[in-house]
Write a structure and sequence with these properties.
Layout: H1 2-10, E1 14-20, E2 26-31, H2 41-50, E3 56-60, E4 65-70, E5 75-80, H3 86-110
Antiparallel strand pairs: 1-2, 1-5, 3-4, 4-5
Helix pairs in contact: 1-3
Length: 115
């Protein structure tokens, strides 16, 4: 799973990446600098849920940004510094989410074949 998120984690300014399933269960979580104290994964998902059906959201704070992207597979949440290339972030997110979609489709067919 980490291989899919590797390119997103390599972008300058990315401090952390989380991916949640549609029901809110954390599927992937990694921070490059260590997490801040009391924020749990469920709190991050609650933030995304409060934003309603928006497909893409970027929140800007005094010390950083949060990029939230909804898809049919789940919710991608990226914690960023103030200076991070937004275009690169969006492009990489598109590639990542399409990779998750392909992986999900293959996994469904692979259940009929023994490895």
């Amino acid at each position: 799973m980490r291989d899919l998120f590797r390119d997103l984690l390599k972008i300058d300014g990315v401090k952390g990446v989380m991916f949640f399933g549609l029901s809110g269960q954390p599927v992937f979580e990694e921070f490059t600098l260590g997490r801040s104290g009391g924020v749990q994964a469920g709190d991050w998902f609650a933030l995304a849920a409060c934003l309603g059906p928006a497909r893409e959201t970027e929140l800007v704070f005094e010390r950083g940004r949060v990029y939230i992207r909804r898809s049919a597979e789940g919710v991608l949440l990226v914690v960023l510094g103030l200076i991070a290339p937004t275009g690169m972030l969006r492009l990489t997110s598109d590639i990542l989410l399409s990779g998750l979609k392909e992986r999900k489709a293959v996994r469904g067919i692979m259940r009929f074949f023994k490895r």
